[in-house]
Amino acid sequence: MKALGLTVTWRKNWRFWLGVSLSLVCLIWLMYSIDLAGVGTALMGMDYRLVFLATLLNLANVLLRTVRWRLIFHTPHPPPFGRLASALLIGQSINILAPARLGDLVRATLVGAGSTAYVLGTLVVELGLDLLMSAALVVLLLSRVTLPAWWRQSGQALLIAAAATLVAVGALVVGRRWIARVLEGLQSRWRHPLVQRVLTGGSQILRSLDALRGPALLPVLTCSALIWAMYTAVNYALLGAVGERPSVLAALFVLVVLLLGSAIPSSPGRIGVYHYLCIQALAVFGIGGAPALSYAIVLHLISVVMPIVLGVALAWRLGVSLRPSHETQMMES
């Protein structure tokens, strides 16, 4: 497979340095507010059978996400399952490590089937489905739990963003044939190569929305619901692993807070900020101190570090280079 060059221009990226600063602040706060010796004791006393179960559930979710992605390819011959799983893990690891979301572009390039624009369109469909699931969880939490004001405002903002995105995607699905005719008319008038490439890409993205209509929609929605249920099950199992009474609402709340927190700048690997958000989410349900930090550490290892390791290993196996390239420098500058 063709190697790809990726650049992370750390020195010139303000978001990177802001993320590093926030991560350092969070780490200092953790060091001075929580008994680290108690955290070590809590980690040694965890029920590692439940940690193993949570790890297996997270790995199974990778397979489930790959199944959903393959279903979104509403084509006679979708890409092979193994290729999609590899592209998904490599793209996820790059998104976690890089200061810009380059992993989505890498995913689209690594698939190697159909046009890159069509594959990017399938990622837009994924985003819309995940926004739908997260919005449903926010509505559930707002109706069942008394939550702090800082979270309620963030949750309401997510609902607004999700609603706007879903309306836009729905309009594209309903009007895609009319839009496709408009693009065809523009292609017949404007023969400039760049314009032709942009219009062709737009047509391919419209084709990728076919997964959101007719009988194809039900299995895709079912997979999406199972994916988010599996994420919740990982959080639920780890609550039991640290000796706390498992709570579905607490597991859901941690999931949504970490989702919202992914928009906050952080260091590569989300160290510090991830742990701080996890602890703040658990505090709403009366879980704090050493158990909360030990929970955050293990969840970070399962949900962040493990995908990075798998993605880097697959990138090495497939010859995907993570070394600097001049093209990506220009994209980030």
Q: How are the SSEs ordered, and which strands pair?
A:
Layout: H1 14-33, H2 36-44, H3 48-72, H4 81-97, H5 103-111, H6 116-144, H7 149-189, H8 193-208, H9 217-241, H10 248-261, H11 273-283, H12 289-318, H13 326-332
Protein described:
With 333 residues, the protein is mainly alpha-helical. 76% of the residues lie in helices and 0% in strands. It is built from 13 helices and no strands. It has helices at 14-33, 36-44, 48-72, 81-97, 103-111, 116-144, 149-189, 193-208, 217-241, 248-261, 273-283, 289-318, 326-332. α6 (116-144) crosses α10. It is globular, with a radius of gyration of 21 Å. Residues 324-333 have low confidence and may be disordered.
Q: Major beta sheet, specifics?
A: none
Bulk shape: globular
Percent of residues in beta strands: under 5%
Computed Rg: 21 Å
Low-confidence stretches: 324-333
Keywords:
mainly alpha, single chain, 0% strand, 333 residues, 76% helix
